[in-house]
Amino acid sequence: MAFQLPRWVRADIRELPFGNAGFAMALAPYGLLQSLLSDRDLARTLTSVARVLERGGILGVDLVPDVSRWREYTNRVQLRGPAAGGARLTLIESVRQDRRCRLTTFEQRYVERRGSCVDEHRFELTFRTLSVRQMTARLEAAGFAIDAVLGDYHGRPWDARADVWVILARRA
After folding, report:
1. In whole angstroms, what is the distance from residue 161 CA to residue 151 CA?
2. Model confidence over 124-142: pLDDT tens digits?
3. CB of 125 within 8 A of CB of 148?
4. What is the pLDDT, as a whole number, of residue 54?
5. What's the chain's average pLDDT?
6. How far is CA 130 from CA 15, 30, 40, 45, 97, in A?
7. Residues 6 or more apart whose Cβ sits within 8 Å of residue 72
8. Between the CA of residue 35 and those of 29, 41, 63, 67, what are the distances in Å?
9. Gap between the Cα atoms of 105 and 111, Å rounded
């Protein structure tokens, strides 16, 4: 079998643009599934992933467990220092919580200063917190069997206090 270079594809995760059963593995890193803010979008995504995985294919899901515990704050400087070409870079972050809907929104502003010129870039990301039990139930409803729930990237047992939750699920 010849080695193939990866092909980058930009697409909607809810409708993956690949044929059926074409992959042995799919990964959803760093809370990717938590950025789907509705059950409908999550269900569509899991159905789409199941479609492109071969029978017995593995889906690795990485959840950020502590998102709902983040404290709210506004305009906190998270980073300040020199950047390439003599510029100064400042990262300013705000966090808002909607606890009823289990949503956490991160707003970030990157401010780049070069002499008297200032360039600002804004970025916002909202995560929805689902428990391991809630996520595994959604995976099972989409046709996955749960192989393991882990507490880190080294295969240690799951713990509710872990910094990351990893779910390995197999397409049934």
Report:
1. 8
2. 999 998 889 999 999 999 9
3. no
4. 96
5. 93
6. 22, 14, 14, 15, 14
7. 95, 96, 97
8. 11, 10, 10, 11
9. 19
Secondary structure of the chain: what % helix, strand, coil (to 5)?
A: 20, 45, 35
- SS3 state of residue 151: coil
DSSP letter for 86, please: G
Which among 80, 138, 145 has a CA at the least distance from the CA of 113? 80
- C-alpha 115/C-alpha 86 separation (Å) is 9
Alpha-carbon distance 96 to 72, whole Å? 5
Token pair recorded at residue 142: 């989409």
Cα angle value 119/71/150 (rounded, 5°): 100
**Per-residue pLDDT tens for 21-71?**
989 999 999 899 999 999 999 999 999 999 999 999 999 999 988 777 788
Q: Cα dist. 161→10, 17, 70, 71, 157 in Å?
A: 34, 37, 14, 17, 11
Tokens read off for 61: 């899901």
The whole-number pLDDT of residue 1 equals: 64
The closest of 65, 63, 30 to 139, measured between CA atoms, is: 63
